[in-house]
Design a protein that fits this description.
The chain is α/β, with parallel strands linked by helices. The chain contains 2 helices and 5 strands.
């Protein structure tokens, strides 16, 4: 069995837009989550699920740089 984790993210949060890419200890918040999940021994695959809105293009770029699979949709 293949175990996949899906991280849902978007840049257009109403209270704090862009939160997922804001630096925490000098690195994007999302990077901390990705690193943590990659350490999971029972996880085979990690996917970033984002909207198809242009505002989320920076998230797709981030994911590609990190070698993450990306799913875009509404």
């Amino acid at each position: 069995m293949i175990v996949t984790a899906v991280i849902q993210a978007r840049m257009t949060s109403t209270r704090l837009p862009g939160k997922v890419l804001m630096p925490v200890l000098g690195e994007p918040l999302l990077l901390h989550q990705v690193r943590r999940l990659r350490r999971a021994k029972t996880l085979d695959r990690l996917v970033l699920a984002i909207t198809d809105q242009p505002a989320d293009d920076p998230l797709e770029s981030f994911a590609r740089r990190q070698g993450l699979a990306v799913f875009r949709g509404s």
